[in-house]
Amino acid sequence: MKKTLVLAAILAGVLVAGCKKSGSRGNAEEIVVGEFASLTGGTASFGQSSHKGTQMAIDEINAAGGLLGKKVKLITEDDQSKAGEPATVVRKLISRDGIVALLGEVASSRSLEAAPIAQQNKIPMISPSSTNPKVTEVGDYIFRICFIDPFQGTVLAKFALTKGWKNVAILTDVKQDYSVGLSQFFKKYLTANGGTVVSEQSYSSGDKDFKAQLTSIAGSNPQAILVSGYYNEAGLIASQARELGLNVPLLGGDGWDSPSLVEVAGTAMEGNFFSNHFSVEDQSPVVQDFIARFRAKYHEEPDAMAALGYDSAMILANAVKKAGTTDSQPLRDAIAATKNLPAVTGTITLDATRNANKPAVILTIKDGKFKYVETVSP
After folding, report:
1. Each residue's pLDDT tens digit, 23-58
2. What are the tens digits of pLDDT across the range 175-214?
3. What is the mean pLDDT of residues 281-300?
4. Which residues contact 255 (CB under 8 A, 6 or more apart)?
5. Do 346 and 276 meet the contact criterion of CB atoms below 8 Å apart?
6. Across the strands, what pairs with 74?
7. What class has domain 5-147+281-358?
8. CA 303/CA 87 separation, integer angstroms
9. Where in the chain is the domain with CATH 3.40.50.2300?
């Protein structure tokens, strides 16, 4: 399929046939990039989608000639959605495979586990979608290309207030830094702007029964409930809430973005809302061209994790081209200097704290599909 002029410009900006000397890591024939992702386990949907987007970007880069006159080799390790595994696989990628950069993870807790290792070894790490602010605070070699939870929490709280939902309950996964942070920033904005948190309940990743928490929440008569965790528990929570007759809207963040959300909850998810990075209903040429190419390659629709995985690889490739080398310091500096780069999930500029300033979209679930509601800018 012929690419749009905008996307062609992106590819032209990151593909270069120069022959400058590469860094000391990797090998003379290839540029070796590492990726760690949850390909199996509790959040496998995230890791598989992100990996598909990343692999598609690498394949396109190589098909157009590679970088610095070399092919890019992507080595992907599965962290199995488990604590402890990110550290193990990232050490392996650095010491055994000699990677020049690291892509991942989706989950903030797993990015926080790997980031100190990348920082210590001066390996630039780009998370496609870890939104907890602590991730990039680890050090100056750690980047992300998504918005962060202070913004996402504010977006959700603003949305609740504009809907007239001033009395809101919060249900948080205390085992996930992402969920804890999102709840914290939601509560901060809501209560500072006339809202009230009428009940705060918690659970842990892997829990199956939420009826005690939901019964307590029901007694507080909320107008809406923030469920700030990931899709697997969110789907069960929605089903059990409806079974208990708790029919108020549920709100979530980008951790809901998985087909499994509706597969688990069925019609219980109808009419609920979540914030996200991307919508397949966005009619911009860049987005629609990406969707068409992704569909042709994988025979499925891309989600936000796939789009962010794609963009993370393109951000890295653009920096390699700008630096003219894969040496760690100039490559780090080139990533940090990313400004106004067109991408699938929006134009990307990294700020002084290595975070991206980007808009968010609000989606709702209608007839089992994720439908666009509105865009909220920083």
Report:
1. 345 567 899 999 999 999 999 999 999 999 999 999
2. 999 999 999 999 999 999 999 999 999 999 999 999 999 9
3. 96
4. 176, 178, 179, 182, 228, 229, 230, 231, 234
5. no
6. 33
7. alpha beta
8. 27
9. 5-147+281-358, 149-276
* Residue 376 DSSP one-character state: E
The single-letter DSSP state of residue 4 is P
- Inter-residue contact 68 to 109 (CB < 8 Å): no
Compute the distance between CA of residue 269 and CA of residue 289 in angstroms, rounded to an integer.
29
Beta strands in 6-140 (DSSP E): 30-37, 71-78, 101-103, 125-127
Q: Closest Cα partner for 169 from 151, 155, 150, 190?
A: 190
Q: Can you read off the two tokens belonging to residue 267?
A: 């019609």
**149-276: what CATH class?**
alpha beta
Alpha-carbon torsion angle 295, 296, 298, 300, nearest 10: 30
**DSSP class of residue 255?**
G
Task: DSSP letter for 104, please.
Answer: -
319: β partners = none
Cα dihedral: 374, 37, 183, 356 (round 10):
-50
Inter-residue contact 146 to 351 (CB < 8 Å): no
> Which amino acid is it at 156?
L
**Mode of pairing for the β-strands spanning 30-37 and 101-103:** parallel
CA 77 vs CA 38, 87, 117, 354: distances in Å: 8, 11, 15, 24
